[in-house]
Amino acid sequence: MASARFLRYLAPNVITLASMIFGLVSLWSSHRGNYPLAGWLIIYAVLTDRMDGVVARAVKGTSELGMQLDSFADFLNFGIAPAYLVLTFLSGRRDLPYHEGGWEHTLLFVACGGYMLCAVFRLARYNVLSDDQIPTKIFFGFPTTLSGGMLVIWMLLLMKYDPSVAPFGGSRLFGDSLVTPVWAWKYLPIAVAVMGYLMASRLPMPKVGMTKNKAVSAFLMTLILVGYICGFAMRYPELCFWMPTAWSIMFLFWGQASAKWRAMYPPPLFPKKSIEQPRIRPQGDLEDLVLDESAASGTALATAKPASASASASASAAGTAVDGVAAKPE
Q1: pTM for this one?
Q2: Which of 8, 44, 131, 314 has the most CB atoms in a 10 Å sphere around its CB?
Q3: Which residues pair with 204 in a beta bridge?
Q4: pLDDT tens per residue across span 4-49
């Protein structure tokens, strides 16, 4: 039974740890200049990020450890890896103003660094919420998985039609005549900054889920299946980019147009009232608890000794009285 319980909790965490390996190899690929591989590995992390949650709920292996591991994996895969991919790719292009040092290069660093900080801010904001404060049907701000995945899939699409990048990702579904313009790369840091803002914002956005309409649910499942096949096969970013993009644009505007969603606000980040007593570090709190228990035990023993003595004296007196009564003549 113990081994079965161990495996039940181990299964989703292994998937989470594997996704962190994808993020690490993506960083290494970006450093080596293999940018398509770096992008596809981030897409791998997007796909496995969904799988670990499904497995955890299926085997009832949800745990606090798994939630913390998932948060660290999201920061690496969708906070650091996409920012480093954009930074290395744009700064390595000699036909772009980001190659040599200057204010353009500084702005590129600011955009990528700001994106990374927005990702860690969003994850930290989610981690401090209690279970009853976490909304179940809505996001406040773009999730890191969506932001990182959409940014990378657009990069893969632009790289596929860039003549300076070696061919990858299967045949060109949009035709060989389509070429990525240079201005698309010049304005990419603006898109990075916008995605960072959307992560840190409080804009409401519904979560993806199945509906009561079977036809719509079947359509969504088909799109998700196609995305998984193309993503793991590292083929056809043309089929993968439009679904998250359309979903984001549609529900971003819908969330702002709906009075119901606009009326919803996330919980505050900081307590509204000041804490009267300062918080104690867990180690110190544990030591105080041990000392309190020891003091309580000593007090209990000290109290118990006089009580025992009193009880013994009472018992002796009672015994003497009984003997006296028994000795009296009738």
Answers
A1: 0.78
A2: 44
A3: 140
A4: 777 788 888 999 999 999 999 999 999 999 999 999 999 999 999 8
